[in-house]
Amino acid sequence: MRTHERKVIVPLDFINIVQTILSAFKQPSKLASFIFDVLIIAIILYKLLEWTRETRAYQVMKGIGFLFLVSVFARLFDLLTIHWVLDSILKSGSIFIILFILFTPELRRVLERIGSHRLSKLATISDVSDSRRAVQDLKRSIMHLSKRRVGALLVFERRSGLGDIAATGIPLNAQLSGALIENIFEPNTPLHDGAVVIRGMTVIAASCLLPLSDDTKVSRELGTRHRAALGVSIASDCVVIVVSEETGAISTAREGKLIRYLDDKALTNVLEGLLVKDDGFVLPWNRRKKKEAGAK
Question: Phi and psi (nearest 5°) for 171?
C-alpha cells in the first residue's frame, strides 16, 4: 500500500539566501562584506525604531514587521493563501503612500534628525552668567503672566528649523527679554494672539500660527493653545512653553508629550536646558534620575 507523503517545498529565494550565507563563511572577503551589510541594515532599523518610539508610526512599524515575519513563516510552511495576501500587501506601493500621508509629521522629524548633526556642543550664549540672568528674567515674566492668567505660547527652536512657522506671523528679530514677552502677550494688543518663535536669544516672529494636534487621546479640557503646542512639537524637535489663560498653569510640550503644572524650579530647569547649554533637553523631574544613573 503506497503512502502519500507531502513534500515541503522550500522557496528558491530562501535557498539562495542560505547558499549566500554559507558561501560567505567560506571566503573571508565575502564574510566581511556580509557582516558589514547586515550591520548597516541593523543600525538603520534600530535608529528608525528609536526615532519613532514615542510616535504613532512606531506602532505601525511594529505591525509591518509582524506581517513580514508571518509572511516568511507562511512561505516556509507552504501556506500559499496567507503568503499571497501578505506578499501583496507588503509589495504593493499603495501601502507606503498611505503611510506617508498618515504619518507625514513623524517622517519629517525622522528625516530632519537624519540630516541634522552637531560637530560640538556649544552654549547658546557664550557667557554662562549672562545666560543665567536671561533665564531668570524670562522666568519672572512667565510666572507673572501665569499669576495674571494671561495666555502665552513660546516655541523654542532647536535643530529643526521653524522658518515655515515663523513665516505665518509678524517678523520681529528682536533680542529675547522678559519685558518683550510680556508686552507681546498683553491682552488686546496686536501680537498677543498666536505664538512667538524663539531662536537662541532672538524672538524671530510673533503672532504665528501652529498646527493643531489631532490626537484623540488629548484631554478635552485642554484648549487651542495646548493642542497647538502638541501639534508643533510633533512636527519638529522644538520645545514649547504654554501659559493657560483659564487656569494660569504653566506647561511644556516636547515630542508630542505635554507636562503640566510646572512650578518655579521646574520652569527654571526647562529654560536653562534651552538657553544655558544645549546638551539635550531633560525634563525637570528626570534630572535626578539621570544623575543617579551616571553615579552608578
Answer: -65, 135
Residue 251, CB-side half-sphere exposure with 13 Å CA sphere: 27
Burial class (CB in 10 A: 0-12, 13-18, 19+), 138: buried
Distance CA 145, CA 210 (A): 21
Q: What is the CATH number of domain 128-282?
A: 3.40.1700.10
Contacts of 164 (CB under 8 A, 6+ apart): none
Residues of the chain with CATH 3.40.1700.10: 128-282
pLDDT tens, position by position, 174-200: 999 999 999 999 998 989 889 999 998
Distance CA(57)–CA(104), nearest Å, equals 10
C-beta pairs of 54-60 under 8 Å, 24+ apart in sequence = 54/255, 54/256, 54/257, 55/103, 55/106, 55/109, 55/234, 55/255, 55/256, 56/102, 56/103, 56/106, 57/99, 57/103, 57/106, 57/107, 57/110, 60/99, 60/102, 60/103
**Other Cβ atoms within 10 Å of 125 Cβ, number:** 18
Place of cell 493643531: 212
Contact 203/172 with Cβ under 8 angstroms? yes
Give the residue from 106, 79, 82 showing the smallest Cα distance to 6: 79
User: Tell me: the pLDDT tens digits for 20-52?
Assistant: 666 656 666 666 776 777 788 788 777 767 766
Task: Identify the residue whose cell numbers are 528608525.
Answer: 48
Please tell me which of 27-31, 77-81, 282-286 the model is most confident about, judged by mean pLDDT: 77-81
